[in-house]
Design a protein that fits this description.
two-stranded parallel sheet; about 120 residues; 2 domains; 5 helices; globular; about 45% helix
């Protein structure tokens, strides 16, 4: 998976975690970053506030599930009722993991593309 960033030094460890890191702006020039990735800082600020404010931190084991929930809410933030309808539609076709499956590691969190 290719990760596109603003070349912030905090992303140095991405390759060790299996991602191809592609920096888009030399030295993290804020003007270039804003042109290529508008509102990216808003997205990350909202994500950090949501994780620390609502969940008080998350574990790596369930990080994908937290990202799925955040992505769903963020992409539908201007249409709150549509988010409820979408979530209701998705939940109708999804099978919930069992407690044992969730904590044994057998359960894989589905990925969410953010489209739809």
């Amino acid at each position: 998976m290719l990760i596109v960033t603003d070349d912030w030094s905090g992303y140095v460890g991405l390759r060790k975690r299996g991602f191809d890191h592609h920096a888009i702006a030399a030295c993290g020039d804020p003007e270039i970053v804003e042109e290529i990735l508008p509102i990216i800082h808003l997205v990350f600020a909202n994500l950090k506030t949501w994780i620390n404010g609502i969940h008080h931190g998350v574990s790596a084991k369930h990080l994908q599930a937290y990202f799925n929930g955040f992505t769903l809410r963020f992409n539908r933030r201007f249409y709150p009722f549509n988010a409820f309808l979408s979530l209701l539609g998705m939940a109708g076709g999804a099978a919930a993991p069992t407690f044992d499956g969730l904590y044994s590691g057998e359960c894989n969190h589905p990925t969410f593309s953010g489209r739809g």
